[in-house]
Amino acid sequence: xxxxxxxxxxxxxxxxxxxxxxxxxxxxxxxxxxxxxxxxxxxxxxxxxxxxxxxxxxxxxxxxxxxxxxxxxxx
Length: 75
Prior knowledge:
0% strand; mainly alpha; 79% helix; 3 helices
């Protein structure tokens, strides 16, 4: 029997896009490291906190992409 969460077709179709978003997450890690260093040097820069939030979303991008693809394709 097929389980409800098992959607291999959605996973396979989303895999190339997840790999592309993995590259974006590497860029997000670099932005996060630089922004963290900036906020440690000058804590008065409140706009750097917003940049850190954007970088964290870039880091989570592969998970969001693969989840979206698996939800779109029925089993």
